[in-house]
TrEMBL record:
<comment type="similarity">
    <text>Belongs to the N(4)/N(6)-methyltransferase family. N(4) subfamily.</text>
</comment>
<feature type="domain" description="DNA methylase N-4/N-6">
    <location>
        <begin position="106"/>
        <end position="225"/>
    </location>
</feature>
<keyword id="KW-0238">DNA-binding</keyword>
<dbReference type="InterPro" id="IPR017985">
    <property type="entry name" value="MeTrfase_CN4_CS"/>
</dbReference>
<dbReference type="Pfam" id="PF01555">
    <property type="entry name" value="N6_N4_Mtase"/>
</dbReference>
<dbReference type="InterPro" id="IPR002941">
    <property type="entry name" value="DNA_methylase_N4/N6"/>
</dbReference>
<dbReference type="InterPro" id="IPR029063">
    <property type="entry name" value="SAM-dependent_MTases_sf"/>
</dbReference>
<keyword id="KW-0489">Methyltransferase</keyword>
<keyword id="KW-0949">S-adenosyl-L-methionine</keyword>
<protein>
    <recommendedName>
        <fullName>Type II methyltransferase</fullName>
        <ecNumber>2.1.1.113</ecNumber>
    </recommendedName>
</protein>
<keyword id="KW-0808">Transferase</keyword>
<feature type="domain" description="DNA methylase N-4/N-6">
    <location>
        <begin position="27"/>
        <end position="79"/>
    </location>
</feature>
<dbReference type="InterPro" id="IPR001091">
    <property type="entry name" value="RM_Methyltransferase"/>
</dbReference>
<keyword id="KW-0680">Restriction system</keyword>
Length: 232
C-alpha cells in the first residue's frame, strides 16, 4: 500500500458567501480514499469535528451510515441543507460528551481544530476562552479517550493533521497528537498526503499551514479494549 499520497486540495463546490475564505475543509478526494480503504458499505462512520460536513456528505454518497458533531450552528445549518439524512449531524460540543446522544461506530474520520503552540485562545469554543497548547493537547486526548469505547471491535480512528509553521515557529502538532492518542489506541501507520494545487497564501504552503503536506494518522482499536454495547 503506498504511504505517500498525492491528492488535489480542490473542492467541488465553493462555500456560500456567508462563510469566510479562511474556513477550512478537507478534500473530498481525501475522504473518498479513506472510506474506500478503511471501510465497507453499511459501516458506521463518525466525525466528531464535522466542520462543513465533508466526511458525512461523502459517506452518504458512498452508502455508508454516518453521523457527526459540530459546535458551530451556521455550519450545522449548512450541512443539514446538503444531507439527505438530516439527523446525521448533531449540533453539540464534543468536549461535553454526556450531552450528546452518542452511538457506536466502525470508523472515526476527522480533522480536529488546529492550534499553534504560541496561541492563547481555545479552538474548542470558537476561540472564545483563553487556553494554551498544553491544555489544548490535554483536551484533545480526553475527547478521543472518551470516544474510544464507542468504537466497535476492529475499528479504526483516522486523524488528518499537519505540523504547523507560522511566525517563524514550528508546532509539531501532528507528532504531538500521535503521541497523545497512541496512549490508548494502537498507532498503526502514518500516510503523508502531498497536496496538489495552487498556493493558498503567501509563505503558507499549499496546505495553508506552512507546508505542502499533512499526515493521515491511522489508529486501531486495541484488542483488550472494551466497546460500549449500546447507544447511550
Ligand atoms: C478542521 S475543522 C473540520 C473541517 C471538516 N473536516 C470539513 O471538511 O469541513 C474543525 C471543526 O471542529 C469544530 N469544533 C471545534 N470545537 C468543537 C467542539 N468542542 N465540538 C464540536 N465541534 C467543534 C469547528 O467549529 C470546526 O468546524
Amino acid at each position: 500500500m503506498p504511504t505517500i499520497l498525492s491528492l488535489p486540495i480542490s473542492l467541488s463546490e465553493p462555500l456560500p458567501s456567508e462563510f469566510s475564505s479562511d474556513d477550512v475543509r478537507y478534500s473530498e478526494r481525501f475522504v473518498e480514499y479513506c472510506l474506500k480503504t478503511f471501510s465497507k458499505q453499511n459501516d458506521i462512520i463518525f466525525d466528531p469535528f464535522a466542520g462543513f460536513g465533508t466526511t458525512l456528505l461523502i459517506a452518504e454518497k458512498m452508502k455508508r451510515t454516518s453521523f457527526g458533531v459540530e459546535i458551530d450552528k451556521q455550519r450545522v445549518d449548512y450541512i443539514t441543507s446538503k444531507l439527505n439524512t438530516k439527523e446525521s449531524i448533531i449540533h453539540g460540543d464534543i468536549t461535553n460528551l454526556s450531552s450528546i446522544a452518542m452511538k457506536n461506530f466502525d470508523l472515526l474520520l476527522t480533522s480536529p481544530p488546529y492550534m499553534n503552540s504560541f496561541e492563547q485562545e481555545s479552538p474548542f469554543d470558537n476561540f472564545q476562552s483563553k487556553s494554551n497548547y498544553s491544555e489544548y493537547l490535554n483536551k484533545l486526548e480526553m475527547i478521543f479517550q472518551e470516544l474510544e469505547p464507542f468504537m466497535n471491535k476492529g475499528g479504526n480512528c483516522l486523524v488528518e493533521v499537519a505540523n504547523l509553521y507560522a511566525e517563524g515557529k514550528l508546532t509539531t502538532l501532528a507528532w504531538d497528537i500521535a503521541g497523545r492518542l497512541r496512549k490508548f489506541m494502537d498507532l498503526q501507520r502514518e500516510f503523508i498526503i502531498c497536496w496538489e494545487g495552487e498556493e493558498l497564501k503567501e509563505n503558507r504552503g499549499i496546505y495553508g499551514y506552512g507546508y505542502d503536506h499533512s499526515y493521515l494518522l491511522v489508529f486501531h482499536k486495541r484488542e483488550e479494549s472494551n466497546s460500549k454495547k449500546n447507544s447511550l
